[in-house]
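Quick one, tokens below. Sequence please?
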């Protein structure tokens, strides 16, 4: 009974880790798309030049 519980616990941990990693990949893709869009749609100054994409 003990080894069966260990195997089930290990399967549960690996499934949880795999799901979390899959979710993190999707979050990374969304952040990358937003970051690239920030370069494309950044605002302009009154002089017509493009502003810096960072705030510091």
């Amino acid at each position: 009974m003990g080894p069966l519980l260990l195997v089930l616990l290990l399967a549960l941990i690996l499934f949880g880790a795999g799901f979390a990693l899959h979710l993190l990949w999707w979050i990374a893709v969304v952040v990358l798309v937003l970051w690239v869009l920030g370069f494309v749609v950044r605002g302009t100054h009154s002089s017509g030049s493009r502003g810096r994409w960072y705030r510091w």
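Residues 5 and 11 are 10 Å apart (CA to CA). The mean pLDDT is 79.
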